[in-house]
Structures
1.
Amino acid sequence: MKISAAVLREKGQPFLQEELDLDEPRPDEILVRIAAAGICHTDVTVRNNPLVLPVVLGHEGAGIVEKVGNGVTKVQPGDPVVLSYVYCGRCANCRQGRPAYCSQSAMATFGGVRADGTTTLSRNGEKIFGNFFGQSSFATHALTYENNVVKVRPDAPLALLGPLGCGIQTGAGAVINSLQVKAGASIAVFGLGAVGLSAVMAAKICGCFPIIGVDIRPHRLELARDLGATHVLDAAQENPTAEIKKITGDGADYALECAGNPKVLRQALESVRRPGVCGLVGGAPLGTEATFDMNSIMFGRTVRGILEGDSVPDIFIPQLVDFVMQGRLPLEKLVTFYDFDRINQAVEDSGEGRTIKPILRMPA
């Protein structure tokens, strides 16, 4: 079938709107008409360092199921769905209920092809790589799979929900699933983009106190306070580690590094009391190294990496949707909508900090 997609043809260059051919769904595939798709930091990172070209990115899609392969039983045409990350379901980590750490997911996520090496997309016979995170949702339609399609309640605002598939579940899940914070625990969140602000909202849901937001952009600090932060710190004006210790008396029980910055990671770690946990959520370029005094973890502090908020999407995304519908996860305060053909403006606005979470609306 003919679809419209945003194609990346050159490293670091703008996306191009092109008409492509999308395969019919195979027995294990699901055709989704994309209503809207969030733009995630990972999309921009891969745009600047693609493994394959030309490629269609996008991995925070939401839409309506149009067709299913004859082996699909999970969803049917007409179902509203959120698209999340892909995993094999067979490796040791998947079998232990930790699909975010699937040992077989790298090529399925970033390789641009199906498991048999074929592509889902083409243009006049030219191979176009897709299957990004098992979806490639920077398009009017996408082929995806049962394990990364999550059916959601029909009364939810579908166009708003795409970011639940990655960025929002990463931040909220880091608090709820990974750190499993308890009511009354103190937490500091470093980096108040979409992931960090999702962590702030989740900390409020969990009953944390104090909730300390750290960033260098005043408007993000103001929004963090509106979303539940009890204290905010401008890291450009004050030492956040020292201030967090003043606020908490001994350091926070938990900290999250959501900026992907080695300096910020050290500040976050040193802001945690003994023993406490510092979660690393921010994605940094491959090869980025961080340093810290070994004694900072000798006395019981823990540093742990977190992917996708340790979420099992079929379980966690419906919970997040319920939080949205209850007004406890007000995503509308984070997002800015863009028409699909303004994808390059949306990427630029996000990179410049003018937009926190851009969402592309597909043409009807």
2.
Amino acid sequence: MNEGLQSGFGRGMERTMNGHWFTLAGARLEARPSGALWWPEAGLMAVADLHLGKSERIARLGGALLPPYETRDTLARLDEEIRALAPRIVVCLGDSFDDRAAAESLTEDEMLALAGQMAGRSWIWIAGNHDPGPVDLGGTHLAELPRPPLVFRHIARARASGEVSGHYHPKAAVRAKGRQISRPCFLYDADRVILPAFGTYTGGLRCDAPELVRLMRGEAVAVLTGQAAVPIPMPGRTGR
């Protein structure tokens, strides 16, 4: 681990070959290249905005007919992280399903895959704006999860400390090899971390959007996802 990369808030930033380590409210966390957040001390993995069943909902409402494979792909990537980390607790930070009907439309294979992932561990469904009510798939359904020194909820609040949330699907654009590349990203500062959307068919909100600029401190860091988790100063917020 590289302890020499110092930030202006907390113990500093660490880079592994794949993940990016940082400290929030005293908790040491890893921003994973997949978009999952790992808190090894608590054995807790968090993911945000799975939006399972999105293609089904869009088709049901008369929208574009997208290939209906995103639920299978999202669950496969989730399974990879669970196998890699073996978490005792999995927290899904809301909008896990694109709506209630999408949750009820999961195929038998998809339900079996999800049940296998949930088996033997505590599974927390945080309510989101797309899925405000519980679904009949097991696990525990909560509005938010206090887990000192952190609190897990769907939408960030203006005055919060140690907050872990999703909802905004943040993404950042960088120039690489002469072209602009946009990737989902984590955003974190001394107060909070906002996770990228984990779902395959989810869009994203640029880091310089007013909603995110208002929430994040001037020294905020964006961590790009992909083959490796890459930290950069948050676009649109640095030094302000």
